[in-house]
Design goal:
Helix content: over 70%
Number of strands: 0
Order of helices and strands: HH
Oligomer: single chain
Number of helices: 2
Largest sheet: none
Length: about 120
């Protein structure tokens, strides 16, 4: 047997080769397990990254919607305020025009009174 050869110095190389092969196989299996673990970790990281990206995209979409709504509200409020101011200006012009007409009538009446006196 090889064990007795090894003691006689004849089969020791074969035994060393056999042990080296076993060690290489164990290292190869460890390397394979490590690669599988790394692939799993990479896939998990990519899935998590995709989840975070989807969450970020959803948050951005919601922020854009809220900003759009706020802008629309501000524009509507501005338009309403401008219409109210325009209405007030038109009323003031009408009052001013009526007052000017009334003043002109009073001035004409005063002139007529002076001429009659």
């Amino acid at each position: 047997d090889t064990h007795s050869y090894c003691f006689e110095g004849k089969g020791c190389e074969a035994e060393k080769l056999n042990q080296s092969a076993k060690m290489f196989n164990a290292m190869s299996q460890s390397r394979h397990n490590l690669q599988a673990g790394l692939q799993h970790a990479a896939a998990t990281s990519e899935a998590r990254l995709a989840q975070l990206q989807a969450f970020k995209d959803q948050e951005l979409h919601q922020l854009r919607q809220r900003a759009s709504w706020a802008l629309r509200e501000a524009e509507e409020r501005h338009d309403r305020e401008m219409r109210e101011l325009l209405h007030e200006l038109e009323e003031e012009r009408a009052r001013s025009s009526a007052e000017r007409y009334h003043i002109e009538r009073l001035q004409q009446s005063l002139v007529q009174l002076r001429e009659a006196a």
